[in-house]
Amino acid sequence: MSRLKRVLIILTTVVVVIGLALGGGVLYVYSNAKVSTAGTTEFSNELAVPPLAKSTVKRDGTRLFELTMQAGQKEFRAGKPTPTWYFRGSGGRPPGDAAGGDYLGPTLRAKRGEKVEVKIKNALGEESTVHWHGMHLPAKMDGGPHQMVAPGAAWTPRWTVNQPASTLWYHPHPHGKTEKHVQRGLAGMFLLDDEKSARLALPKKYGVDDLPVIVQDVRFSGAKFDHGHKILRDTGFLGDRTMVNGTLDPYKVVGDELVRLRLLNASTARVYDFGFSDDREFALIGTDGGLLEKQARMDRIQLSPGERAEIVVRMKPGEKTVLRSFPHDSYGGGWQGRLAGGDDSFDVLELRAANALRPSPDIPGELGKLEVPDGSDSVRGRFFGLVTTGINGKGMKMDRIDETVTRGTAETWTVRNDHGTPHNFHVHDVQFRVLEVDGKQPPPELRGAKDTVFVPPHKTVKLAMRFDGPADPDTPYMYHCHLLYHEDLGMMGQFVVVEKGQRAGTVRAPHSHTGH
Ligand code: C2O
Ligand code: CU
Ligand code: CU
How confident is the prediction for the chain on average, in pLDDT? Predict the structure, then answer.
């Protein structure tokens, strides 16, 4: 054999070995990426229901809540205390609270027309914020990255609730750190009621036939959370199991024929495709911003991070059914679908019907009244191209105002995912109507009021929204991808609402509220 031949053989061998190793590695990553708890879950823990937050009413009628962000711990699994962060409500934990640990926060509840005030205390070792996701309120009260609360300080936003009955939520929003702060346990629900919703014959006994269902995916390493991102995944954190209201493997005994589930995807990156294990139909009655005009029957509903859906499911005496998240191909399948979690499935919550059920009235034919514009009076359009590094080619900058909108006007925003990676789009302060998905009429689950919408790879959505102010040229609201890793990376922009003819002001450098 000539020297050349030998060298060639060795080189070829080396190349083949490296190729096999890489290929094997990729194959290994691919096949290990799929996770499923469907059909194997024991449902051994009773579902915790976050307590309703205590409030006091001040002399001028303002409803006052108090929330403290602090560190704690919770035994998600017996004998394994996990360090957490959570919101403590005033009055502490109610006796006999099934939550039995420090995680998430109490459910705030207020009525349309009511003045609310929330005293936020930061007892964490670092600064954070509390944002009211889905709430229409002045920019200074929004709790975005410009309203930082220093450790040891307090911040007391106040506003008047002026929007329909809905399932909103609250969570921190410190720029670059939102994923971490939410994952540690800082999130809670904020329910709004109005006169019409109070009269409707819908299930509304909180914790009985009207259940908050805060879904998060999680992974443990020993007693601790494992928040690491796995390699070759650009969506951010994906867990290997789910929990509801901080309860692993949860079941809930229900005693009514109709049960309303207020589904909130409070996961940081995972998209769920919810349905029931027996494929039963359910009624969708509400989306992010409130009740639909009429129920829509379906057997699956997809929720990307930050989205909510209110569904009503009918139970028969003595039966069980499982709320499950099914595999879905909205990532286009293949490599991206697998690594972004599209092939995963989870048993989320088991509903166990009692042997005798209280009769429930049928779902009313007419529910809410949509208050979102239909695009016909939009005074201008804007375009937002999504890639992980930023929106319209720009990464988030705290001192740059990206868009200026006029108070009282409606606009049509076109949002396109220019990417193979899943993204979604959330706009602060407003609810919008989805006019089109890829030029077509949106499916029933996107026909209600929304503040967050999934934008799968290479899809385009068209949204109509109205900016009712109040104007504040110096304080921006955010729009961003609600896959929190992407938001943290800079997939976020800022808009201000101004009076007609007014110019955007200057955004001051972020400063922490240090008052008490
Ligand atoms: Cu739920 Cu800007 O956030
Ligand atoms: Cu928000
Ligand atoms: Cu994204």
Answer: 94
User: Is cis: bond before 470, omega within 30 of 0?
Assistant: yes
> Please, which residues have CB less than 5 A from ligand 3, an ion?
423, 481, 483, 486
> How far apart are alpha carbons 116 and 157 in whole angstroms?
8
| Beta carbons of 210 and 262 less than 8 angstroms apart | yes
Q: What is the pLDDT of residue 92?
A: 59
Domains located in the chain, CATH noted:
45-197 (2.60.40.420), 210-358 (2.60.40.420), 378-513 (2.60.40.420)
pLDDT at 271: 96
The string of DSSP codes covering 327-355 is ---TT-SHHHHHHTTTT-BEEEEEEEEEE
CB 349 within 8 A of CB 323: yes
DSSP class of residue 430 equals -
Nearest to 514 by CA among 135, 155, 93: 155
Which ligand number lies closest to the CA of residue 306?
A: 1
> Of all protein residues, whose CA lies closest to atom 3 belonging to ligand 1?
133
Q: Are 422 and 340 in contact (CB under 8 A)?
A: yes
Which atom of ligand 1 sits closest to the CA of residue 169? Answer: 1
Q: What is the C-alpha to C-alpha distance for residues 105 and 68, in angstroms, rounded to an integer?
A: 9
At 284, list the tokens: 């969708």
Residue 100's pLDDT is 62
CB-based contacts of 487: which residues, under 8 Å, 6+ apart? 178, 179, 480, 481
C-alpha of residue 18 to centroid of ligand 1, in Å: 44
Adjacent-strand bridge partners of 214: 264
| pLDDT value for 57 | 96
pLDDT digits (tens, 9 = 90+) for 342-399: 999 999 999 999 999 999 999 999 999 999 999 999 999 999 999 999 999 999 999 9
Q: Answer yes or no: is the C-beta of 480 below 6 A from any ligand 1 atom.
A: yes
The pTM assigned to this predicted structure is 0.94
Half-sphere exposure of 153 (CA within 13 A, CB side): 17
Closest C-alpha residue for ligand 1 atom 1: 133
